[in-house]
Give the backbone structure.
Amino acid sequence: FMVGSNFNQSEGRIELEVPKVSGVNTLVAPPQSKVIQVTKDGAVALDGANVSLNDLRQQLEFVRRQYPDASVVVRADAKSDYERVAEVLGICSDAKVKINLSFRPGNVVR
């Protein structure tokens, strides 16, 4: 078992020649939750960048392979097409990322 690390600035204040080791990946912190947005016109964005559904699938699968506990926050406009939101949720489910839904509190009409 071996752990590698990236050094931050404070660690670089002392001049050292750190040994190189092959075949070892550096230890990096898992990313924060990815944010998926669905606009009222059906556009989909991942972390603020517009993506196709195919690109969304590929990027989420990549993140999941790197970080098994990866999660997403899905934010959909209240007037967005339910079918598009369902497609996004299906892609998240297929990629096996944890899904969190974003909404704002308010009065519920029953």
